[in-house]
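Why predict the complex rather than its parts? Because the way molecules touch one another can change local conformation, and only a joint prediction can capture that. The input here totals 321 residues.
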Amino acid sequence: MTLLDIVLIVIGEIMIGIGALADLIAAIGMNRFPNFYLRLHAATIGTIWGAFLPLVGAAFVAAGCKCLGEYRWFMAGGALITAFIILILGPAGSHALARGTHRSGIVPVEPKVVDHLEEDESMPTSQETREIGEEEGGSP
Amino acid sequence: MSYGEAFLLGITALAAIFSTIATYMAIMERDLLKAVIFSAIQSTIYAFIYYMLMAPDIDLVYIPVAVGLYPAVIIALIKKTTREEKP
Amino acid sequence: MTGMTEIQMFILAILPIYVAAFILYTFRALRGPSISDMVLAIDAMSYDLAAFLVILAIYFKQPILIPVAIALALWIYSLDIYVSKYLEGKELGE
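Output of the joint prediction:
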């Protein structure tokens, strides 16, 4: 076991430990926040800090551990691919879910100060008003 | 049996208990869309149980069917019919 | 070789934190007030479960267990899209 392997294993174990703590914090926040739109914040912590970081750490550990045999590069590559997939799909899924929820209005934005998105959706956009004006102007 | 094996089998037993609770709530729910989500919870936990029982080949087939295709078919069906279950 | 390496002992020490997080996620997924809360909780739980499965594959020293994590992380994304499409009132594929 060379020095590079030891450094890789220690860095990977630190990342896995940080990921476990972030996971617990995100789970507590998921239970304690009062609103769906605040729970998105906890879900973001659980996705990026709790899943992406331990996967990169697991790739480091798998690359540095001689005890896994020659297939350790397969494990490291699989872990990196999973981390990349989660980095792309997690925010995209959360965004799609929040958009659908806010447009359908099944969850009230209960403890709020101001909601600019709702005001923007309730009033017609500038393009719609221009179309209405053109229709009222009549055809030549 | 070492500490590690006992702990991992304990996790599997706990997952089985939670999947039973999810199945019960999916049967007793009147809102059909919520029932689909409960069924998705049960499917995810079953994927974990298959993994812990060292059957990754079954798991690779079970995940697309139970997590991907089955909720799509049921949600499309709910969309075409009604959402509330009639008593 | 005394049965367990240092990496396996570290992973065994880390595992209870992950299990506690999964139990809390499952509580929120089972009793969420609205559908969006349940879907969000099961989504975050599945992404963390993918990381947990990779760590367990390192613990078991079996490389054949890795593709399960990739499949789980890819397919749980579809549940978000189905539910958000339903909530926006559109058909699938529109």
